[in-house]
Amino acid sequence: MSVLEIVIGAGVLLVSVLITIICMMQEQKPQNATAALTGASNDSFYDKNKGRTKEARLKKVTAILATLFFVLILFMDIVMPLILK
After folding, report:
1. How crowded is residue 67: how many other Cβ atoms within 10 Å of its Cβ?
2. What is the pLDDT of residues 43-55, one digit of tens each?
3. Which of 18, 23, 14, 8 lies closest to 73 in space, CA to CA?
4. CA angle 48, 28, 12 (to 5 degrees)
5. How far apart are alpha carbons 27 and 32 in whole angstroms?
6. Helical H runs in 1-85?
7. Phi and psi for 26 in degrees, rounded to 5?
8. Residue 65 CB: number of other CB atoms within 10 A?
């Protein structure tokens, strides 16, 4: 194993653990049938300012880490075999 393989593998492991932890920190959204049938509106102050909340920050960090995970996996699968020949 080369140093590059070890570094990228450790990066993938770290990102996957962080994604798992951040997903566990997020609150579960209730999906009740009453809101769906009555057409409950979400025009509250909280919903209008959702981008500034802790939940929104966790969602953004999750998206960034998922993208990083995807790029690292593609790098390991496509680029590393070409480099290590």
Report:
1. 11
2. 566 566 666 788 8
3. 8
4. 105
5. 15
6. 3-25, 33-38, 45-48, 54-74, 80-83
7. -75, 145
8. 19
User: d(Cα 25, Cα 10) in Å, to the nearest integer?
Assistant: 23
Q: Which amino acid type is present at position 69?
A: F
Q: Which two tokens stand for residue 76?
A: 């390991």
Give the length of the chain: 85
Q: Quick one: tokens of 21?
A: 């932890």
pLDDT tops 80 at residue 68: yes
Q: Which residues contact 33 (CB under 8 A, 6 or more apart)?
A: none
Residue found by looking up tokens 């020949």 in the block? 85
Decide: pTM greater than 0.85.
Answer: no
Each domain of the chain, given as residue ranges in start order, spans 1-22+53-85
Q: Is 15 exposed, middle or buried (0-12, 13-18, 19+ CB in 10 A)?
A: buried
